[in-house]
Design brief:
Elements (H helix, E strand, L loop, with lengths): L1 H37 E9 L11 E4 L2 E11 L6 E8 L11 E5 L2 E3 L2 E3 L3 H4 L2 E5 L9 E3 L13 E8 L10 E4 L2 E11 L6 E8 L11 E5 L2 E6 L2 E6 L2 H6 L1 E5 L14 E6 L2 H5 L7 E7 L11 E4 L2 E9 L2 E3 L4 E10 L1 H7 L10 H12 L2 E9 L4 E8 L15 E3 L5 H18 L2 H25 L1 H22 L4 H29 L3 H4 L5
Parallel strand pairs: 1-9, 2-8, 10-18, 11-17, 14-18, 19-26, 20-25
Antiparallel strand pairs: 1-4, 2-3, 3-4, 5-8, 6-7, 10-13, 11-12, 12-13, 14-17, 15-16, 19-23, 20-21, 21-23, 22-23, 24-25
Length: 524
């Protein structure tokens, strides 16, 4: 019995040994099948540079979830790009949509803040944003910077038209009542080459506040307002201070408007005051000729009428008057009569109408003139002021052409400045150095004379004064009380007293009896 058992046990041992590689092979086949089943599509992404990407290590992520890995990195045929072959997982097939986007995540500092800090610890990786297109693609061009808005983010996109880009950049913030509600997602030069298109994105639910009549303006971040009660400083966020930003709001008096749809175009104003201002309507083209220096006057300078800005300077030129044979200085400007009509509640007539032309001619006859005035004493900036000068010389205005010509009067302040300049020029011509040398020579001669006087005249004069002082001191001793001279004089004056009394009595008698001088004393 024992021998049969040993034979059967030896017969089963080889079969058990072969089961181990069979199980390993089966597990390998399972892993291979699972790997093949889990393997997704392979795409190629073109980048300008590798940017720290590594084959077999760099991951592809979407919202911090791994969706693939880099399998190969090579240069393009023209050596201008880096081609990165990426193997996606099976459940990442949506990322092969034609409008999908890929970019390298690395630490960046931009207008919207600091991003990509997670790449500091784990190294750079490729972020993916799935597209919505039904068309599939296997070759993509990677973005050099992260997109400002992902495809699945809810909100509305709008386009703003501005003259210049200024300090705006991709990622610049957008504010609504001081709350950050969006950002700039792109910009481009207009087709005319004279404007800039700024593409913005406003996140939901704040996009419901963007109406068709909403006003947009640049938000610099710091507002300084000087009023009668002091200085007011209003600031926005640090990002808007450093990189600039935008803001929007509807006019308080505007009626309810529908929400603006995607890609609605708006005009971007320079500031909030300009954005909230009523439309100015068609401008009135005006030209004025000045016979003073235009230094300090620049294009864009305001045109002021009795303290109200009604226009701005558009051009400063120079011309030649053939009749007077002299140079003239024409200043062209745009004047908006609708501002006066709005402030006067429609009482001011239309300028282009017959009544408006008659009103303007009457105002010119009463002394309406243009004048250059100083806007800022420190910078020397000038502006054009329209005001009434009743004592001005008679003049006429030309309303028969497209450009209205208005008369001007010289500025007294600028004339004083010119006179001061002429006086300074004359003072420059005065030979101050020569006068100073002559004065120095005269002072030196006077110094020599004073020295001679001190040496030749003052010592004898000092001796004479000393002798006089000694004589006066002796006379004082001679005349002081108790001296023999003082006693003798006193006794002599006492002896003269009776004699003086006798003469006094005789004078009284002669005054009463003047005839005694001829007849003698009565009774004798």
């Amino acid at each position: 019995m024992r021998e049969g058992a040993s034979h059967s046990r030896a017969r089963w041992l080889p079969s058990l040994v072969w089961t181990i590689p069979l199980v390993a092979a089966l597990l390998g086949v399972v892993l291979i099948v699972r790997s093949v089943n889990s393997r997704g599509p392979t795409v190629t992404i073109s980048f300008a540079a590798a940017g720290g990407l590594e084959r077999g290590k760099t991951r592809i992520k979407c919202k911090s979830v791994d969706i693939g890995i880099v399998r190969a990195i090579r240069l393009s045929h023209d050596l201008s790009r880096v081609l990165v072959t990426v193997e996606l997982t099976r459940d990442a097939e949506k990322f092969t949509a034609k409008d999908s986007r890929f970019w390298v995540v690395a630490p960046r500092v931009g207008a919207s803040g600091v991003s990509g800090l997670s790449a500091l610890l784990n190294g750079p990786y490729i972020e993916a944003d799935a597209g919505r297109s039904k068309q599939q693609a296997s070759d993509f061009v990677g973005l050099e910077a992260p997109p400002a808005v992902t495809i699945d983010e809810k909100g509305h996109r709008y386009r703003l038209h501005a003259e210049t880009l200024g300090a705006l950049d991709v990622g610049s913030p957008i504010f609504y009542r001081r709350d950050r509600v969006g950002q700039v997602i792109g910009y481009s030069i207009g087709k005319d080459g004279a404007s800039v298109n700024v593409d913005v994105f406003v996140k939901a639910p704040f996009d419901q506040y963007v109406m068709t009549s909403t006003r947009w303006w640049r938000e610099s971040g710091v507002k300084v307002k000087i009023a009668s009660n002091g200085v007011n400083i209003d600031t926005q966020s640090l990002a808007s201070i450093l990189a600039g930003g935008l803001a929007f709001e509807a006019r308080p008096d505007s009626p309810p408007q529908p929400q603006a749809p995607d890609n609605t175009a708006f005009t971007l104003a320079a500031n909030q005051a300009e954005a909230m201002r009523e439309p100015d309507g068609l401008p009135l083209r005006v030209v004025m000729y000045f016979d003073q220096s235009l230094r300090g006057l620049a294009v864009g300078a305001p045109v002021d009428f009795q303290g109200i800005v009604i226009g701005e300077v558009t051009n400063i030129g120079i011309g030649y008057d053939r009749r007077a044979r002299t140079l003239i200085m024409p200043v062209s400007m745009n004047v908006y009569p609708q501002r006066l009509q709005r402030l006067s509640h429609g009482e001011f007539p239309e300028t282009h109408s017959i009544e408006g032309k008659a009103a303007m001619k009457a105002m010119v006859a009463r002394g309406l003139r243009g004048q250059l005035r100083i806007a800022n004493v420190l910078t020397g900036r000038l502006y054009v002021a329209l005001s009434l000068f009743p004592e001005a010389k008679p003049a006429k205005a030309d309303f028969d052409h497209d450009v209205i010509e208005l008369p001007t009067v010289p500025s007294k302040v600028l004339a004083l400045q010119s006179q001061a300049g002429e006086m300074a020029a004359k003072l420059d011509k005065v030979p101050l150095d020569e006068m100073g040398m002559n004065l120095n020579t005269s002072l030196q001669g006077m110094n020599r004379k004073l020295t001679s006087l001190s040496n030749d005249v003052l010592p004898p004069l000092s001796d004479a004064l000393d002798a006089t002082q000694q004589s006066l001191a002796g006379a004082g001793v001679f005349l002081q009380q108790g001296s023999p001279f003082h006693v003798e004089v006193h006794q002599s004056l006492q002896g003269l007293t009776p004699t003086l009394q006798y003469f006094n009595a005789m004078a009284d008698y002669l005054e009463r009896h003047p005839e005694s001088l001829l007849r003698g004393k009565s009774g004798q």
